[in-house]
């Protein structure tokens, strides 16, 4: 902010220096410097007064406050006053440079026309100050709007992030609960694995971007955790990039789709298959997941059902214009395709 003020100050200083020095440069070598002072420098001082009086006081107090009549009247009084003062200064201090017309040359331009032209010349700095002030106000308003939008975006993303954590934890606990009676040893192992997953969610995802390799490691551990619960009738296949890609992504983007596959794609009595595939093409990540579709009963409360809604909102906020996401049901197989570009 301080740097911007310094730039503005020196910009104004340079502009006025050029305006005040130009008449002297153009009149270089001429003897009548007083004429330059009378006809150029004195009006320039009045122009500066009009410009800065409006720039610092009148525009904010009256024009932007929609007190148009007061604004016009005050400026009109200033302009008339400066036209009158200019005439007094010329007649008092520069009387010797007043041109005397030879007899027979006519009376010259009408006095009213001269006054009218002078008043119009004083309107120029007024309009210029309005233009600069209005532009500056628009820039400040736009900056404030963007700042507010950015704050809102961060708040929404933070809310979605906090919403996803208990949702994930709730679903994982449901899976572990099912193992307690069936296989206590596997339940203990699952609790230990869940603690590692939650540590990642709590301490490593509170950033805008994480490396894709960390997300892959997180998803792999989660899939192995979920495989402990499913029966031999369920086949789980997954394939992730094994080498470091150097790509960073928003954290916890893909886990909702995997959760959804285990929630709706597994049956206790029927054979099922979950296929998860991820590949990278340059800076584009392709994530595909397929699973059988076993709709939950209306009274089934396992999970809150917010996973995919949460994902779609986050994609819209984070990857707007840089992602494609579609789901479809073909032959009782639920298929989800997510493609995102590197931010």
Helix count, DSSP H or I runs of 4 or more residues: 8
The CATH architecture term of the largest domain is: 2-Layer Sandwich
Instruction: Please tally the β strands and state the result.
Output: 7
The portion of residues forming beta strands comes to 5-15%
Q: Could you estimate the helical fraction of the residues in percent?
A: 55-70%
Structural class of the helix and strand makeup? alpha+beta
Distance between the termini: 29 Å
Rg, Cα atoms, Å: 38 Å
| Mean pLDDT over all positions | 81
CATH topology (fold) name of the largest domain:
Heat Shock Protein 90
Q: Helix-strand pattern, N to C? A: HHHHHEHEEHEEHEE
* Number of self-contained structural domains: 2
Shape annotation: rod-shaped
CATH superfamily of the largest domain: Histidine kinase-like ATPase, C-terminal domain
How is this structure best described in words?
The protein is an alpha+beta fold and 343 residues long. The protein has 2 domains: 2-108; 171-341, Heat Shock Protein 90 (2-Layer Sandwich), CATH 3.30.565.10. The chain is built from 8 helices and 7 strands, in the order H-H-H-H-H-E-H-E-E-H-E-E-H-E-E. The chain has helices spanning 2-26, 33-63, 68-93, 111-182, 184-203, 212-227, 255-264, 307-318; strands spanning 210-211, 234-239, 248-249, 272-281, 284-292, 323-330, 333-341. Strands 2-4-5-7-6 form a 5-stranded mixed sheet, covered by helices on one side. Strands 1-3 form a two-stranded antiparallel sheet. A hairpin with a 2-residue loop joins strand 4 and strand 5. Helix 3 (68-93) packs across helix 4 (111-182) and helix 4 (111-182) packs antiparallel against helix 5. It is rod-shaped, with a radius of gyration of 38 Å. The chain starts with a helix and ends with a strand.
């Amino acid at each position: 902010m301080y740097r911007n003020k310094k730039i503005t100050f020196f910009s104004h200083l340079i502009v006025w220096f050029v305006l005040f020095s130009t008449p002297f440069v153009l009149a270089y070598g001429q003897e009548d410097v007083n004429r330059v002072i009378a006809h150029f420098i004195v009006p320039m001082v009045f122009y500066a007064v009009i410009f800065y009086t409006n720039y610092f006081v009148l525009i904010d107090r009256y024009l932007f406050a929609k007190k148009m009549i007061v604004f016009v009247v005050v400026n009109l009084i200033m302009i008339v006053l400066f036209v009158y003062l200019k005439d007094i200064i010329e007649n008092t201090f520069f009387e010797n440079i007043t041109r005397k017309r030879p007899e027979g040359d006519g009376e010259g331009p009408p006095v009213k026309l001269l006054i009218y032209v002078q008043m119009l010349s004083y309107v120029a700095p007024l309009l210029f100050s309005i233009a600069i002030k209005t532009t500056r106000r628009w820039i400040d308003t736009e900056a404030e709007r963007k700042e507010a939008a950015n704050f809102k975006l961060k708040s929404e993303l933070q809310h979605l992030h906090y919403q996803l954590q208990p949702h994930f934890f709730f679903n994982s606990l449901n899976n572990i609960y099912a193992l307690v009676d069936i296989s206590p040893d596997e339940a203990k192992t699952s609790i230990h694995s869940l603690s590692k997953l939650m540590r990642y969610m709590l301490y490593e995802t509170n950033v805008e971007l994480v490396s894709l390799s960390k997300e892959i490691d997180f998803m792999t551990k989660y899939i192995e955790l979920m495989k402990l619960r499913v029966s031999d009738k369920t086949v789980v296949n997954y394939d992730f990039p094994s080498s470091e890609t150097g790509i960073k992504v928003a954290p916890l983007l893909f886990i909702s789709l995997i959760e959804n596959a285990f929630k709706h794609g597994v049956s206790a009595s029927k054979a099922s298959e979950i296929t998860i595939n991820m590949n990278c093409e340059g800076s584009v990540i392709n994530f595909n997941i397929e699973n059988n579709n076993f709709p939950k009963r209306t009274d089934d409360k396992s999970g809150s059902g917010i996973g995919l809604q949460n994902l779609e909102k986050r994609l819209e906020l984070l990857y707007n214009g840089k992602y494609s996401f579609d789901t479809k049901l073909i032959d009782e197989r639920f298929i989800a395709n997510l493609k995102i570009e590197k931010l």
